[in-house]
Amino acid sequence: MIDIRLENATLTYLGDSQPIFTNLSVQFTAGNWTALLGPSGCGKSTLLRYLAGLLSEKVNFTASKQAPPINELADNVAYMAQQDLLMPWLTVIDNVCLATRLNGLPVDAATKTRAMALLEQVGLDSKANVPPNELSGGQKQRVALARTLMQDKPIVLMDEPFSALDAVTRHKLQNLAAALLRDKTVLLITHDPQEALRLGEQILVMNGKPAQLNKITPPKSAIPRDIDSEFATIQQSILEHLGGHS
User: Fold this and answer.
1) Can you give the pLDDT at residue 233?
2) Which one of 51, 120, 186, 204 has the minimum C-beta count within 10 Å?
3) How high does pLDDT run on average in the chain?
4) φ/ψ of residue 241, rounded to 5
5) Number of folded domains in the chain?
6) Which domain holds residue 19?
7) What is the dihedral sign for C-alpha 108, 109, 112, 114?
8) What is the pLDDT of residue 15?
9) What does the chain look like in DSSP terms, one character per residue?
């Protein structure tokens, strides 16, 4: 398991004078889920993409401490973007196995068996051999989740992974992700306070320009949590920190 820690971090896009965040300190605890909320455009996805190693040549980044260094994170990260990013010329199962192929490893029978098991868990095993253009938006997002789970990395970064799903499917896949990503270091971006409360062992709200982080005390029960009366009180606190934005 891997801890991620930033101390006094400042990030500015090249060519911009206004930093996205400045003097930001945060720890993503090994083996825990962190839920990150905030209004659109506040810098949540920028932070996620930086940690995924996707912004190294596009930003100026400084920190008094970063552990582990960004160049040591790449091989340990599975990243699920807001967009499904499925390869349209590959079948569903080949998309799920894509990281294996990109790592130069054979997509053998054992690999495909594991991929099929994940597709079954997200309810899409019957679509294994069709191209993504035959899927709905929600189905594509479920394939992208299966692909992320397939990578089995110690750090998982997810940008609104359940946003295109109906309420029942979203609840089921939240439970599935919580079970399969147990003992991973997970950073989940969400606009949904209830989702943050169901899954967050640490809950952070990002807002302001430059962005700052505020901690919300989560419920004490284990994730994935059932919605109860305590949620309403904590959800109100989240909304107050968001300044009325959900």
Assistant:
1) 86
2) 120
3) 93
4) -70, -30
5) 1
6) 4-242
7) negative
8) 93
9) ---EEEEEEEEEETT-SS-SEEEEEEEE-TT-EEEEE--TTSSHHHHHHHHTTS-TTTEEEE-SEEES-HHHHGGGEEEE-SS----TTS-HHHHHTHHHHHTT----HHHHHHHHHHHHHTT-GGGTTS-GGGS-HHHHHHHHHHHHHHH--SEEEEESTTTTS-HHHHHHHHHHHHHHTTTSEEEEE-S-HHHHHHH-SEEEEEETTTBEEEEEPPPSSPSSPPP-HHHHHHHHHHHHHHTT--
Give 64-122 pLDDT, tens digit per residue: 999 998 888 888 999 999 899 999 999 999 999 999 999 899 999 999 999 999 999 99
pTM above 0.90, yes or no: yes
**CATH number, position 186:** 3.40.50.300
